[in-house]
Design a protein that fits this description.
Layout (H helix, E strand, L loop, with lengths): L7 E6 L3 H12 L5 E7 L18 H5 L6 E4 L4 H13 L3 E4 L2 H15 L1
Parallel strand pairs: 1-2, 1-3, 3-4
Length: 115
Amino acid sequence: MKIQKFKKRIGLIGFGCVGQGLYDVVEANRHLGWEIGSICVKDKEKPRSLPASAFTYNVQDVLQDPSLDIIAELISDPKEALAILRQALQQGRTVVSANKKVIAENLPELIGMQQ
């Protein structure tokens, strides 16, 4: 049986432990057809494992990129994370969040927006 691969492009918002971890898993498994399309970070000065040219510092660059299939919100600030999720869902985007606080406190709203 042949497994059909579907190419999916992911936009990362946040590149801390979770963001870099997701990046590393996707890169190690490129045969699955997933790829990181863009990465947004806040701190331009923070040392990172990738060159500065790999990042954008404007979250709208990720949120407005029509080539991305999934927006992965992976930041620690709950208020900012909620604003990102709201905007992405209002655009009809597929989102993933690692922010348990945002999900726990806003689940009914997020489900309603997703539907």
